[in-house]
Specification:
Distance between the termini: 50 Å
CATH class: Alpha Beta
Radius of gyration: 19 Å
Order of helices and strands: HHHEHHEEEEEH
CATH superfamily: Ubiquitin Conjugating Enzyme
Largest sheet: 6 strands, mixed
CATH topology: Ubiquitin Conjugating Enzyme
Structural class: alpha+beta
Length: 229
């Protein structure tokens, strides 16, 4: 059991190191061309292609979420992060796999897009910007969420909180509260069918983000109202 844990920890480290090496190589390649040249070339394209050319490289990255000149995180779940300092190997391996997928899988279209930032020191702490899809009341809007995976992950779902609430004054949706609560069966914050609940074997952060955009921030928001039936 101890040996298996050590192997898993090493695998997680190797996956993360490989991803960072590939990201650095890609950044060096992009930097070899003048940014202005890239912008000018992209702006010659139709909007859908131009949007993708300019923003696709920005859809996933690492950053520091600590407040400038402070050791405190600018994040909804900073206290929970403090309680989950040492991450289990199972959590590290799973996050390494999922982050690699997220960097390629999140949409980046002018009709809908999602951008993710992961803390440099805490890969279990993320900020997500979900852009409303075309044809919905949320189109052209950008909504920021704080996401955190505690040490029960992936046996339990991540924590997710909406920060775009006008400082707690605005409720955009029956499932998006002014306090930031996100009601979604995948998150365990809403009662759904057994097939809609979190399953450690198949459920992912990507699934949570896509469900938030497609199911919660949908065209017919009225049907999300709990008393609709």
């Amino acid at each position: 059991m101890y040996r298996s844990s050590k192997v898993s920890e090493q695998l997680a480290k190797d996956v993360k190191d490989t991803y960072e090496m590939m990201t650095e190589a890609l950044e060096d390649l992009l930097a070899s061309r003048n940014d202005q040249d890239l912008i000018e070339d992209a702006l010659k394209l139709p909007l859908p292609q131009a949007y993708k050319a300019l923003l696709e490289p920005l859809r996933f990255d690492y950053m520091s979420m600590k407040r400038e000149g402070s050791t405190t995180y600018n994040h909804k779940y900073k206290d929970l992060a403090q309680q989950n300092q040492t991450m289990p190997a199972t959590k590290m391996v799973r996050l390494a796999q999922e982050l690699a997928d997220l960097s390629r899988a999140v949409p980046c279209e002018n009709t809908n897009a999602t951008f993710i930032r992961v803390d440099k020191e805490r890969v279990d702490m993320m900020k997500v910007l979900i852009c409303g899809a075309e044809g919905t009341p949320y189109a052209h809007g950008c909504f920021e969420f704080d996401l955190f995976c505690d040490n029960n992950y992936p046996n339990g779902p991540p924590k997710m909180n909406l920060t775009t609430t006008g400082k707690g004054a605005i409720r955009f949706n029956p499932n998006l509260y002014a306090c930031g609560k996100v009601c979604l069966s995948l998150l365990g914050t809403w009662q759904g069918k057994s097939t809609e609940n979190w399953d450690a074997k198949i459920s992912t952060i990507l699934q949570v983000l896509m469900s938030t955009q497609a199911i919660i921030m949908s065209e017919e928001v009225y049907f999300n109202e709990p008393g609709f039936e």
